[in-house]
Structures are given as structure tokens and as C-alpha cells.
Specification:
253 residues, alpha/beta, TIM Barrel, 8 strands, binds phosphoenolpyruvate
Length: 253
């Protein structure tokens, strides 16, 4: 059965000593909570992966990366491969975040290759999908998400699809303070699960955790996570403060 998941995406924030403090605070606070019904994942910038991975060895959380190269290895200056991530103890990796689609021109086909690289190394992809404000206003959101799923991940066989996590992140909600309503989130999450069911079958669809991301915080997490198809959250800004992040991780009823 699918798991509840809360993943923190630190993006390009924090200097090393601050990251050190934050991860140790998170680890400390997690020790006081029963985390048996939620998997907590921390996705720091690349230079801090080893730090987070080391702390995670004694902690109740997993280490995730924010990106991976679509190439295997070799002369690709500045890239980081899935095998390198694996060698650092990384278990999860975000792919297709809207910031990477926008600023680095990542396409659904790039994302598909990255997912293959990760699965080859037994790293769980957290694949982001979501529409822009303009696409939603033009009622194109269902179509956009269908295409992202079809081109980005539906090349996988059923067994591999079951190993993936999807994050629905409406672009208009990321970092804006404008959270999707619980009804808007549920509508899209149910749609994504139905797409998976139609492509594979209901057993596969029920196995895949679908996270919500976009201005999710300690105040609104519980009502979002209470929706039947919302299995947790991908948290940006609110993951940079240990107290807020822990409150979010404890928001499952
Ligand atoms: C994100 O970037 O994945 C995200 C959800 O950001 P925020 O929570 O800050 O909106």
C-alpha cells in the first residue's frame, strides 16, 4: 500500500553551517515523533548530500537529491550522475521540478531519461507535474498534466511505475503563498491516479504516492493531507525551518 510522504526541497538555500544546523535540528525533533506512518525525505543542494546522508544514518528520514543528469557518466561538465547519488546514500530524487523546466528548459523527454537513470540505481524518482496560471485560466490543466505523464513517465513498465512518486505542483502555487484549495488538489490527484489506472491498472494506481506541492505550510498541510488522493507533500519554503517542517510531517490524521 502506498506510503504517506513529506519531502523537503531546500532548493538553492543555506550555507554549509546553516545546513548542518538545520539537518541536525530536524533529526533531533524527529526523534520525538512517531514517524511510523510517514516517510520523511530531505532534499538539500548537491554539496550537502553527504552531510544529510550521514545524519540520516541515525535519523528517521531519507536523503533525496533535487536533480540528476540524464547522462550515465563521462565528459558532461557540471553534471551529477545517478550512480554518484547512489554512492552518497541517496534514496530519492526530484525530477522535472517546474523551476528546472522553466530556467533550464528541461523537457518531458529529458525527464523520462532521468527517471530511467534513477530507477537503474534503485533511487526513487519524485516526478513533478503541474500547470501554469495561464494554462489553468485557459482550462488546459488536465491536458498539460496528461501530456507530462504520458511523455515523462508512461514509458515505464508497471513494475517500475509502482516504484515512482508523483508530485502535483501547480506552478502558480509555488513560492507564491497561494495554495491550491483542498478540492483543487484532490481533483488533480484523482485525475493523475485515474491516468495511471487507465495506462496500467488500479493496483498500480493505488500503489503510487501522489504528493501536493505549492505553498504548503504548517497551517494548511493537515486539511490537504486529509484528502483521499493526497498522500503527503513536497515542501519548499516551509522546509527551511525545522519547526514548521516537523509540524507538516506530523499533519497526517
Ligand atoms: C517546491 O518548490 O517544490 C515548493 C513546493 O515550493 P513552496 O513550498 O515554497 O511553494
Amino acid at each position: 500500500m502506498r506510503r504517506n510522504i513529506v519531502a523537503g526541497n531546500w532548493k538553492m538555500n543555506k550555507l554549509f553551517p546553516e545546513a548542518d544546523d538545520l539537518i541536525n535540528n530536524i533529526a533531533e525533533q524527529l526523534r520525538n515523533f512517531d514517524t511510523s506512518d510517514v516517510d520523511v525525505i530531505i532534499c538539500p543542494p548537491f554539496p550537502y548530500l553527504e552531510l544529510v546522508s550521514d545524519v540520516s544514518e541515525d535519523g528517521d528520514f531519507f536523503t533525496g537529491a533535487q536533480n540528476v543528469s540524464k547522462f550515465e557518466n563521462g565528459a558532461y561538465t557540471g553534471e551529477v550522475s545517478a550512480t554518484m547519488l547512489k554512492s552518497l546514500g541517496v534514496d530519492y530524487c526530484i525530477v522535472g521540478h517546474s523551476e528546472r523546466r522553466k530556467y533550464f528548459k528541461e523537457t518531458n523527454f529529458d525527464i523520462a531519461q532521468k527517471i530511467d537513470r534513477l530507477l537503474n540505481e534503485d533511487i526513487t524518482p519524485i516526478m513533478c507535474v503541474g500547470e501554469t496560471l495561464e494554462q489553468r485560466e485557459n482550462e488546459k490543466h488536465f491536458e498539460v498534466i496528461r501530456t507530462q505523464m504520458e511523455e515523462g513517465i508512461f514509458h515505464l513498465k508497471a513494475d517500475d511505475m509502482q516504484r515512482c512518486i508523483i508530485a502535483y505542483e501547480p506552478v502558480w502555487a509555488i513560492g507564491t503563498g497561494q495554495t491550491a484549495t483542498k478540492e483543487q488538489a484532490q481533483e488533480i490527484h484523482a485525475f493523475i491516479r485515474q491516468l495511471i489506472c487507465d495506462k496500467y491498472n488500479d493496483d498500480v494506481a493505488q500503489e503510487v504516492s501522489i504528493l501536493y506541492g505549492g505553498s504548503c505550510n504548517a497551517k494548511n498541510a493537515a486539511e490537504l493531507f486529509a484528502m483521499p488522493d493526497v498522500d503527503g507533500g513536497l515542501i519548499g519554503g516551509a522546509s527551511l525551518k525545522s519547526k514548521d517542517f516537523i509540524e507538516i510531517a506530523c499533519s497526517f490524521q
